[in-house]
Amino acid sequence: MTYAIQAEGLVKRFGETVALNGVDLTARAGTVLGVLGPNGAGKTTAVRILATLLRPDEGRALVDGHDVVREAHQVRQLIGLTGQYASVDEMLTGTENLVMIGRLLELSRAESKARAAELLERFELWDARDRPAKTYSGGMRRRLDLAASLVGRPSVLFLDEPTTGLDPHARGGMWDTVRGLVDDGVTVLLTTQYLEEADQLADEIVVIDHGQVIANGTPDQLKNQVGGQVLQVRPVDERDRETVAGLVSVVVGDGMQVEGDLVTAPVTDPSVLPTIVRRLDDAGVVVAELSLRRSTLDEVFLVLTGHRTESTDETPELVIEGSRA
Amino acid sequence: MTASTLAAPRTLTRRVSPAATLRHTATLAWRSLVQIKHNPMELIDLSIQPIMFVLLFTYVFGGQMTGGHPVQYLQFALPGIIAQNAMFATMNTGFLLNTDITKGVFDRLRSLPIGRMAPLAGRIVADTVKQAWSMAILLAVGLLIGFRVKTNIGGLLLAFLLLLAFALAFSWIAVLIGVLVSEPDKVMIFGFTTIFPLSFTSTAFARVDTMPGWLQAWVKVNPVTHLSDATRGLISSGPVASPVIKTMVWGVAIAAVFAPLAVRALRRRV
């Protein structure tokens, strides 16, 4: 099995702050590795190290077998990077932005223009190709940014929060694009704060919090890791809610929650279901809903980190790092 | 989906050749200059403040300075105005560099297999072209309202070369500031709070023998004095050799101190 990304024991400190505290990451060639974590978890720092922009204080990382510190120039020939910000030159047109990258990658003038045209077409920016990027919408800028990172046909692509700030439609478009790239054989490392995004796109997920990996595995493995399933019971008559809650907590134990008339509880042993049915019957409670479902990644995250993914601090991670350095 | 992004097996180069670094620098300089095509206002921005200075110093202060002969004062002050403007213009380098860093453009460039110094070098080359443009504008406006080159074309060319060389050296200070501050506007604040006093406490706009003794002591070592005097000597009248040499010594000293500091700060920041 070949790994496109292998990182071991990455440590990065900014003064007193430990941004990464021994992070291991691996991504098999041609797959999507989702790096999931709240703001400030260290996701961007990890991407910046892998993309040769930052040297780790400890540990090492290989991209397609090349060391990101000692063979940075080789790594740069293999990767594409799309940052948390649309890092296109706002004063240049879409075409000029892409031609500039092409020229920097030693394509001829004609090749650069052809490649730019191809990417503008593919990312639905053709009509806006001659307008300065500052006139683009957020979604268009993000697409241009992604196009810029594809000019050199990278085999490993880093996407740092590619959909943060995008509307649901633009987000869906970005997901389709990522799937298409993977079909083409590109390895993608994607950081995200959105559990749904990791669940949708990633073959493997690494959950990072406070600079450490707190869990990893496939989306399914992660869901299994924390109880795996959730029992949901909704009585027809809301007055039965207390009765339902009482008997669920007796059968299941800890973790029962009541939201409105819905009683939920994490379940590890699927055999509780018949027991619950019997007890409900004995108590004479008629239920509108009784189900066992897989836990969402949100619930997984809550169990793993002890806090929810919603972050009140909207400051982009990169800016905080910039002022620290 | 086309197969266009399919990662083909490729041969990787081990390093960037000096010729490639030059090509990258040229591409990145092009990138900064082609913007003018979409935003011609930038050229006017580069010109408007210097033109206002020329008109203001000539027609408002000039009469008082010379007892009613504004053009006579223009003949004295224009070399100083050009020198002062060149120093202000270097701040653009810091401003635009900081913009690139804070907007993430610098990260994108550094993630490409290009010469490590190409992004900075491209920036500086482009800004030197803009410098030359604003010097030419100043001279043209001066000529239009009565300034005369009293030496020769060779002197004029040497003056421009000296100004550009000094500006290049001085722009390392702008690069350092551009790397250190958190947002582009702070570069401009720095520019105004340091270059204003620096350029006015010189012989750019007034003769040193009219100033109080304590101020003369500073004015006589101020690099802007030497740059103004050298420019004046090369295009109008006055001594040439001594101020030219002192300007070059200052330029070399500034570059020797600030270029390593700026490069180190840049490596640390990005």
From TrEMBL, chain A:
Keyword Cell membrane tagged: yes
Record domain ABC transporter: where: 5-235
GO terms assigned for molecular function: ATP binding
Xref: PROSITE patterns: ABC_TRANSPORTER_1 (PS00211), ABC_TRANSPORTER_2 (PS50893)
Location in the cell: Cell membrane
Primary location class: membrane
Pfam families the UniProt entry points to: ABC_tran, DrrA1-3_C
Keywords of this entry: Antibiotic resistance, ATP-binding, Cell membrane, Membrane, Nucleotide-binding, Translocase, Transport
Bilayer topology annotation: Peripheral membrane protein
Family from the record: Belongs to the ABC transporter superfamily. Drug exporter-1 (DrugE1) (TC 3.A.1.105) family.
Protein name as annotated: Daunorubicin resistance protein DrrA family ABC transporter ATP-binding protein
Species per Swiss-Prot/TrEMBL record: Actinoallomurus vinaceus
TrEMBL record, chain B:
Membrane topology, from the record: Multi-pass membrane protein
Entry's localization field: Cell membrane; Membrane
InterPro entries per record: ABC2_TM, ABC2_TM_bact-type, ABC_2_transport, Nod_factor_ABC_transporter
Transmembrane intervals: 43-61, 73-97, 132-149, 155-180, 187-206, 248-266
Secreted recorded as keyword: no
Keywords noted in UniProt: Antibiotic resistance, Cell membrane, Membrane, Transmembrane, Transmembrane helix, Transport
Source organism, top-level taxon: Bacteria
Pfam name, any one: ABC2_membrane
Domain ABC transmembrane type-2 span(s) in chain numbering: 41-269
PROSITE patterns named among the record's database cross-references: ABC_TM2
Family, similarity comment: Belongs to the ABC-2 integral membrane protein family.
Protein name: Transport permease protein
Lineage start: Bacteria, Bacillati, Actinomycetota, Actinomycetes, Streptosporangiales
